[in-house]
From TrEMBL:
Transmembrane portions of the chain: 6-32
Alphabetically ordered keywords of this record: Coiled coil, Endoplasmic reticulum, Heme, Iron, Lipid metabolism, Membrane, Metal-binding, Microsome, Mitochondrion, Mitochondrion inner membrane, Monooxygenase, Oxidoreductase, Transmembrane, Transmembrane helix
Family recorded in the similarity comment: Belongs to the cytochrome P450 family.
Localisation: Endoplasmic reticulum membrane; Microsome membrane; Mitochondrion inner membrane
EC number from the UniProt entry: 1.14.14.80
UniProt protein name: Cytochrome P450 2U1
Domain of life: Eukaryota
Coiled-coil ranges from the UniProt annotation: 240-267
Enzyme class: oxidoreductase
Length: 487
């Protein structure tokens, strides 16, 4: 079925007239666009360049367009003008050197919030409110474990639980996806809610099912979040309604936890992030226009829960998949783990510097398969001139991480999985600034340190106890080149 048949399944004379009017309006809008914008591909009336993203993932399309139009180009998705940044030098110049202009978010886009209004940390425009919320979140994440032995203990507790679940399989073929999500989610639950859940807990299962429903959505549903008329189209309406239902369910769970914490709060014994936020809210009562409200609290926890589970889980999936595809690399990692830890000593973060090949392997995983190949859209705070082009205030800015991690000038044979890219002649790990899976600048992921800790401890714990391989006779999940289509 073509895109147009999907979008407009029945065309009567009235619909044709309406479409013609919309085309004229769209043409007038495009004719009135600012001068000296970055160049870009020609789009269609109404939908702009959106159709080009139906065949391939956006990151790949943008990378190809950059070859023709340059590392800074303009695209249109419906009426929304988007400037796309590609390549490390361009992205660093915008997000770091010109942070004052490129650190905001697009206005009136709340796709990562349950109520569609409250923006939280992920989508708040850059300003005093965001700075205060982000500072509070980072400070309290640190207080509840980041960089501390206490959080290492929580991660190792979950890695042991995960390994024990795998041991019960007794060598039979199995899917690790649900187990992995349980383990990683429990880590962020311990930080946010002050507790972990047993894997067979029905409430926990329901919570994770809602989360998967939120994070697993097709392009049409994503488009519906930004372009309201799409919500009523056949084939979009029901999945969009299910998305809203899942978002509401997770929101209600968080509000229930906040209420429980309010009833049991002990100001002298702050248990977790929710307690800390409630205490801060109480301190600000009577100050007027406090930004530490219950709804702000709900949305921030909502965003932290999703981000704290999804990205780490998916990166670990990729890591194990590449170990299956490259058993020689898996064996080298295991040999290094055995040489440092032996069969019984638990891994700790202090061991990371003693395992250069393991660290290089994880770096290569995040390079070749970044789980966020395109960041949450940025927005310009001011009218600005960037690389000779005029970019107006409130322009949507898309940052294409994929274009950096698959730049052949930085990484020869970029589609090849090769940890030795990060190993020098002396066998030491070499950190490279061009690896930016958590983005850079003022909008860098506040949970980066937690994610890196989880990746190392889960990965080493798993490979210390198990060797991962395909079931006997099973075909490879994909050929190496085809991995690019799974982003």
């Amino acid at each position: 079925m073509s895109f147009w048949v999907y979008m407009f399944p029945v065309f009567g004379s009235l619909q044709v007239i309406l479409l013609a009017v919309l085309c004229v309006i769209a043409a007038l809008v495009l004719c009135g666009r600012p001068r000296n914008l970055p160049p870009g591909p020609r789009g269609l009336p109404i939908v702009g360049n959106a159709i080009s993203l139906l065949k391939d993932p956006p990151a790949l399309v943008y990378t190809d367009w950059a070859k023709k139009y340059g590392d800074v180009f303009t695209a249109y998705f419906g009426p929304t003008r988007t400037v796309v940044l590609n390549g490390y030098a361009t992205i660093h110049e915008a997000l770091v050197k010109n942070a004052e202009d490129f650190s905001s978010r697009p206005t009136a886009q709340a796709s990562f919030t349950p109520d569609g209004k409250t923006l939280g940390i992920a989508q708040e425009v850059y300003g005093p409110k965001l700075k205060e919320h982000r500072k509070f979140a980072v400070m309290n994440l640190r207080d509840f474990g980041l960089g501390k032995k206490s959080l290492e203990g929580k991660i190792l507790e979950e890695s042991r639980a995960l390994c024990d679940e795998i041991s019960k399989i007794d060598g039979r073929p199995f899917c690790i996806s649900q187990m992995m999500q349980n383990a990683v989610s429990n880590v962020i639950c311990s930080v946010l809610f002050g507790r972990r859940y047993e894997y067979d807990d029905m409430a926990f299962k329901s919570l994770l099912q809602s989360m998967r429903g939120i994070l697993t959505r097709d392009f049409a549903v994503v488009l519906a979040q930004f372009f309201s008329p799409v919500k009523v189209l056949p084939g979009v309406r029901k999945p969009y309604q299910q998305l809203r239902k899942n978002m509401k369910k997770l929101e209600e769970h968080i509000k229930e936890k906040i209420k429980e914490h309010e009833e049991t709060l002990d100001s002298d014994n702050i248990r977790d992030f929710i307690d800390a936020f409630i205490l801060e809210s109480k301190k600000r009562q009577g100050h007027g226009n406090s930004i530490f409200t219950e709804q702000e609290h709900t949305v921030i926890v909502y965003q932290m829960f999703l981000a704290g589970t999804d990205t780490t889980t998916n990166t670990l999936h990729w890591a194990l998949l590449y170990m299956i595809l490259h058993p020689d690399i898996q064996e080298k990692v295991q040999q290094e783990i055995d040489s440092v830890l032996g069969p019984n000593q638990k891994p700790e973060m202090v061991h990371r510097s003693q395992m250069p090949y393991t660290e290089a392997t994880l770096a290569e995983v995040t390079r070749i398969s970044p789980v966020t190949p395109i960041t949450i859209p940025h927005g310009t705070s001011n009218d600005t001139v960037f690389r000779g082009y005029n970019i107006p205030k409130d322009t949507v800015v898309t940052v294409n991480i994929w274009s950096v991690h698959h730049d052949p000038k930085l990484w020869p044979e970029p589609d090849k999985f090769d940890p030795t890219r990060f190993i020098d002649d002396e066998g030491k790990y070499v950190k490279k600034i061009e690896i930016i899976p958590f983005s850079i600048g003022r909008r860098i992921c506040p949970g980066e340190q937690l994610a890196r800790m989880e990746l190392f401890l889960f990965f080493t714990s798993l490979l210390q106890r198990f060797t991962f391989k395909l079931p006997e006779g099973a075909p490879p999940p994909f050929q190496q080149r085809d991995a690019r289509t799974n982003i």
